[in-house]
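Feature request disguised as a bug report, sorry. It would help if multi-protein outputs had a clear separator. Right now it looks like this:
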Amino acid sequence: MDILGHHIYEYKRGVRSLMLRTLDIINLDLAIERIVRDGIFYHVLPVTDKKVNIFFGDKICVDIVVGFGDKALHEYSHEQDFILGIMLGYSRVEQCKRYIKRIHRGVQDTTTKSLFQERAELTPKFMVLQQ
């Protein structure tokens, strides 16, 4: 639970807008009590019958996670995965690389792949101008 305290500390200092913590379900009530005591919004999703993910932070970020539905993290679309990574404070460049890698791997989201392919056709071409 010390890590939860550290995450709350980082959130309250503005380091991140959203935090994600995976907990044993036996620790959930204690975690919620601590988060609520600090006036922080949260959302809980089951991972297994013994573990949960608890998202907490700015209301707008938590609302976005709630909007993603009750699916597992590995079932998120390319865009949902990207948005979550950005909200959790991961490197923007690394999230862009992850997004491109997921699209090229063809991970479950064919809509995103087709949008990416359409945009690839618009990629600017570089020319060398002669003087």
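(second protein starts here, but nothing in the output says so)
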Amino acid sequence: MRSAGHLEPAKGLLAALMQAAARRRGRVALVCFSGTGAQVRVRPGRPGAWREAWVAPIESGGGTPILEALRCASGLLAGHARRHPGDARCLWLLTDARVRERPARPAAAERIHLIDFDEGPRAIGRARAWVQDWRAGGHARHALASELLAAPRR
């Protein structure tokens, strides 16, 4: 995502998503993934104030461990389902989907929202295929960012 200039906008959109969750008092977790692997940066719970340190170390390139990241997220969602059976389990995935794998739908997620950062004349459209395969919500990053920025603050 870095070579296409999408890494910094992804971090900004992530900050907006976390702030929106905090306003709704929702529970969230944050799994970041890059060429070095997948890491849980925010354990499941109610998000506090946004911390740049959560995403500052995210790098791009070197291969995207999408399968590891989805396994990690699915494990967090399954654990959350056991502890809070009445809560919705929603996965937000910010990606350009430029990976060789075609991952299966994460079973522990009731709803999936995929934010596609693969855009422009060289877009390859893998994220659109995942949206269809997973019966997920697909979002253009610009539209979602505008919606989040326009959301009323409480």
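Even a blank line would do. Unrelated, but nice: The longest helix spans residues 7-24.
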